[in-house]
Every structure is written in C-alpha cells, then in structure tokens.
Amino acid sequence: QVQLVESGGGLVQTGGSLRLSCAASGGTFSSYAMGWFRQAPGKERGFVSSISRSGRVTYVGDSVKGRFTISRDNTKNTVYLQMNSLKPEDTAVYSCAARVPRAEWDTSSRATDYDSWGQGTQVTVSS
Known about the structure:
About 0% of the residues lie in helices and about 50% in strands. By secondary structure, it is mainly beta. A hairpin with a 6-residue loop joins strand 4 (about 35-40) and strand 5 (about 45-50). The radius of gyration is 13 Å and the shape is globular.
C-alpha cells in the first residue's frame, strides 16, 4: 500500500496562496488516482479535488472552483494542490488520498473510494 505525506500547510491571510504537496512512497505512483480532502473542526470531511493517474483528468469541488488547482508530477511521485485567493472558510486539515482506478477517466469525489490516506496538513486562513 502506498504511503502518503503532506506538506506545505501553514498560516496565511485572506487572499493569500499556499501550495500543498503530497509525496508518495511504497507503490507505483502513476497507477494511482489521487485526491485532496479537507476537514474543518466540527465538520465532516469534504472533497476538494481529484486527478487521474496521468494527470489528464481533474475534478474540482464547487467551493474551490476557480481558486484551487490540482496537479501531479509522476517523476517525483508527488501531487500538488495550488490554493489561491484563500478565504477563512478554507481553514481545515487537508489530506491527500490514493486509490486504484478502474480506468484513466475514473476520478472520484467520494472519500470512501480511497484506500490510502496521509496524516494531513493544517491550513489556517486569517481574516
């Protein structure tokens, strides 16, 4: 099973930017579709974005559309989440996750579809 480690979180002001990274090890990274999820205190974990094995297919949640961009570099076994125009409501623990898809087009927004998870990285946006 692939191991995942997130980095890049921190404290940023409203309107600022952060780039999260998720480094994978222990598996063939290019075989996995990847996703980012977030969980704020007292709230359920929610979908942020997902990307196919090759990176050609991406899906972004409505709450971050136009502000967040997912990408991956299969030569570095890493998936990224570029977050721009951050808002206080983006404050959460962000986790990356991996799953073995049925096909290249098969990306998922459901957390239960993912098999491997990182520990998460805290993002705090101050107003």
